[in-house]
Amino acid sequence: MKKIAFYGKGGIGKSTTASNVSAAFSGMGRRVCQIGCDPKNDSTRLLLGHICRSTVLDLERQRKGGEIALEEIVHTGFHGIHCIEAGGPEPGVGCAGRGIIVALEKVRALQALDNTDVVLYDVLGDVVCGGFAVPIREGYAEEIYIVSSGELMSLYAANNIAKGIRKFAARGRVKLGGIIGNSRNVEFEEELLRDFAVRIGTQLIAFVPRSKVVHDAEIHRQTVLEFAPETPQAEVYRNLAAAIDQNTDLQIPTPMEFEDLEAMVEHYGN
Ligand code: ADP
Ligand code: MG
């Protein structure tokens, strides 16, 4: 089983990119499971066509330790893709990271990933909180992809995630597979992202253009692969899935100092 995770700053495009990549893997004949590890619960919306109605933590709360069946946490979406949402604590109470720990333990206990070829964890990138590091720390994911634009704060988050991967790579199997550039139309963005990737010891595995078709598909609650499969944007996601599938360039990253990162962004004029 290929075990991958997408990390990145909130709102940068992880879930959109993950859902399109899951759809592309499924189109390649793989049995895919996408697991949302973000208290927003919207990771799999484009695959399901609606917000997930029962997350793992919702069920845990309702049952108070009682039985939960596999079918209750695994929802079937576009092209038969299995969708799971970890869920989160009630707003204002509890810790989101702790929720991920409980949810992933449940996924493991219920053997929800039997008969899966590709599992994709879609994780909010705040590795400062231990809970969000669980997929990389506990061996759930082995290949990490960081989604980032060329904006300083997105690169800052990406660099912090690289620090987290470096820390856990020393005692586990986890490696960084590359940076997925998701454009915000800043100047020289692709060059900047490629430079950043090389500086932290990895590659820019794809550069995804900012495109209105992503927005249109989102309004229809679909991935671009479902909504507009013939468009260049759909081809970008299919190429990204193929690149991930064939990727052998797995590295322990070498994160940058913040001042160097700042200088790099400044150099490109952003
Ligand atoms: P995250 O999961 O990182 O919080 P989302 O995937 O929910 O972010 O994306 C945030 C917003 O950005 C969504 O409205 C999504 O449609 C939009 N978006 C993401 N990628 C692109 C893109 N390449 N082009 C246009 N809009 C995009
Ligand atoms: Mg998301």
Describe this structure in words.
The protein is α/β, with parallel strands linked by helices. The protein has a single domain, classed as P-loop containing nucleotide triphosphate hydrolases (Rossmann fold). Helices cover 44% and strands 17% of the residues. It has helices at 14-27, 45-48, 56-63, 70-73, 96-109, 130-137, 152-169, 189-199, 212-219, 224-227, 232-246, 258-267, and strands at residues 2-8, 32-37, 75-76, 82-85, 118-124, 143-148, 175-182, 204-208. It has an eight-stranded mixed sheet, with helices on both faces. Helix 1 packs across helix 11, helix 5 runs parallel beside helix 6 (130-137) and helix 7 packs antiparallel against helix 12. The model has no long low-confidence stretch (mean pLDDT 94). The site of adenosine-5'-diphosphate has 15 residues, from helix 1 and helix 9.
Topology:
Layout: E1 2-8, H1 14-27, E2 32-37, H2 45-48, H3 56-63, H4 70-73, E3 75-76, E4 82-85, H5 96-109, E5 118-124, H6 130-137, E6 143-148, H7 152-169, E7 175-182, H8 189-199, E8 204-208, H9 212-219, H10 224-227, H11 232-246, H12 258-267
Parallel strand pairs: 1-5, 1-6, 2-4, 2-5, 6-7, 7-8
Antiparallel strand pairs: 3-4
Helix pairs in contact: 1-11, 5-6, 7-12
This protein binds adenosine-5'-diphosphate and magnesium ion.
CA-based shape: globular
The CATH topology is: Rossmann fold
Name the structural class.
Answer: alpha/beta
Bound molecules: adenosine-5'-diphosphate, magnesium ion
- The tally of helices reads 12
> Which series of helices and strands comes N to C?
EHEHHHEEHEHEHEHEHHHH
Q: What is the CATH class designation?
A: Alpha Beta
Which strand order does the major sheet show?
3-4-2-5-1-6-7-8
User: Measured on Cα atoms, how large is the radius of gyration?
Assistant: 18 Å
**How many structural domains?**
1
Would you report the number of β strands?
Answer: 8
Beta percentage is: 15-25%
User: Per CATH, which architecture?
Assistant: 3-Layer(aba) Sandwich
Low-confidence stretches: none
Largest β sheet strand count, sense and barrel closure:
8 strands, mixed
Mean pLDDT reading: 94
Helix content: 40-55%
CATH superfamily: P-loop containing nucleotide triphosphate hydrolases
Q: Could you tell me how far the N terminus lies from the C terminus, measured between alpha carbons in angstroms?
A: 40 Å
